[in-house]
Amino acid sequence: MTVRQLSIAATVLGVVAVVLFVLGQSTLGVVFILLSGGAWALTQFGKGPSGQSRGPGGRDDRP
């Protein structure tokens, strides 16, 4: 998955978690919050120090 796809997935999982909390399903809400946090963490792992995406294989191809 690309960084953009992971970012979208993290957002969707976060929204689902909020809906589950509103519906009274707090246990499932916590699970979805953890999944969302994991997806968000992966988006941060895929970025370089300046916040820009790295090249293939996680290399920083900038000079």
Summarize the topology:
Elements: H1 3-22, H2 26-45
Helix pairs in contact: 1-2
Write a short abstract of this structure.
The chain is mainly alpha-helical and 63 residues long. It is 63% helix and 0% strand.
Structural class by SSE content: mainly alpha
Main β-sheet description = none
Helix content: 55-70%
The first-to-last residue Cα distance is 25 Å
Number of helical regions: 2
Number of strands: 0
Strand content: under 5%
What form results from the Cα inertia axes? elongated
Average pLDDT:
79
Radius of gyration from the alpha-carbon trace, in angstroms: 15 Å
Q: Note the run of SSEs as H and E.
A: HH
Low-confidence stretches are: none
Task: Explain what this protein looks like in three dimensions.
It contains 2 helices and no strands. It has helices spanning 3-22, 26-45. α1 packs antiparallel against α2. The protein is elongated and about 35 Å long. It starts with a helix and ends in an 18-residue tail after the last helix.
Features:
63 residues; mainly alpha; 2 helices
